[in-house]
Amino acid sequence: MSTTTHKNHRIITSIGSLCIVVAAISCIFAVYAPHLRHGSWPVRMYPEPSETEYPVRGIDLSHHNGQVYFDLIADQIDFIYLKASEGATWRDPMYNTYYGQAKDAGIPVGAYHFFNFTIDGRLQAENFLWQTRHHSLDLPPVIDVETHTQASQPDDKVVARLSEMIATLREAGHDPLIYTHRYGVSRFIDRLDVSPKPGLWISSFTDPPLPDSIDWVIWQYSNVGSMPGIKGDVDLNAAPSADFILGN
């Protein structure tokens, strides 16, 4: 084959490959275009769960969300989780305000604790229980287990402290859920020394959020959502049923 023929063949192959890439990008854009968030790079994308499969919707808030107009969001959601505490001593300064406003708006309210890998689990449970002691909660308490802001600790110590917090909350009459991402399931949740294992609130930006073999209760499908009544990004959640709402 002549040199010119080789060059032509390479050009044709390159054009064909480019067309495939462009077609793939077009398909991805068609699926996610309605959910692109602008004003930042890279552009962030998230799935939109089926309202038929996941009819129950909710959000979670902390003091980072600032002023929230609960009267505007009340008819858009079925539940709300509020950050109550973190570690052994920190308590969210907006928790009590948010709680009162959410209850006044008729929204079922739950509370969550951001788990610190380095601190005794019983102390963390006591901090959460103190912060929520005057409030009637409509949802199970949640232990938020995230890895990206944590000091390095051996996994077995983290699992032991997490198991201790779960046991302490159960002693106080609460059966918590665990919030984590898919890697947190295998790294921590599957290794918990408690029975039964807590229900799972999964953070996953894929649809479906987990393989069918793994049960979950709530799905956080976006951390960059938007909603009238809240300035800036807000976490969006969905669930297949409202069975986790206490009293249902």
Describe this entry's structure for a reader.
- With 248 residues, the protein is of the alpha/beta class.
- The protein has 6 helices and 9 strands, in the order αβαββαβαβαβαβββ.
- Strands 1-2-4-5-6-7-8-9 form an 8-stranded mixed beta barrel.
- Helix 5 (155-171) links the parallel strand 5 and strand 6 (177-181).
- Helix 4 (121-131) packs across helix 5.
- The protein is globular.
Write the layout of secondary structure elements.
Blueprint: H1 3-32, E1 56-61, H2 70-73, E2 79-86, E3 90-91, H3 95-104, E4 109-114, H4 121-131, E5 142-144, H5 155-171, E6 177-181, H6 182-187, E7 199-203, E8 218-227, E9 230-239
Helix pairs in contact: 4-5
Report low-confidence residues grouped into runs of 5 or more. Answer: 27-43
**H/E order of the elements?**
HEHEEHEHEHEHEEE
Broad structural category: alpha/beta
Number of strands: 9
Number of helical runs? 6
So what's the overall shape? globular
Biggest sheet, strands in spatial order? 1-2-4-5-6-7-8-9
Question: β content, as a range?
Answer: 15-25%
Helix content: 25-40%
The main pleated sheet reads as: 8 strands, mixed, barrel
Task: From the alpha carbons, calculate the radius of gyration and give it in angstroms.
Answer: 22 Å
Question: End-to-end span in angstroms?
Answer: 75 Å
Let me know the average pLDDT.
Answer: 86
